[in-house]
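QA checklist item 7 of 12: single-chain prediction sanity check.
[x] sequence parsed
[x] length recorded as 71
[x] structure emitted
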Amino acid sequence: DEIGRLAMRMDMEAAIGSLPAAEREILSLRINGELGFREISSVTGMSVPAVYRKYRKAINTLRERLSGGAL
């Protein structure tokens, strides 16, 4: 239903907003910008492994928080 989708979207926005800035940037570039890890590395100046680690950390944090963990 519409209210459920709105609540889910608000929860997602709050969870993303609570991530550290670097993780938010990487998540945005990967999902919204549709960039690969090498491209994100070039944009951010981080190594590819660092970008990948921060992306995985952000995804895992979101999963935890959205599955009932504290925001």
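[x] summary fact logged: The longest helix spans residues 48-66.
[ ] second reviewer sign-off
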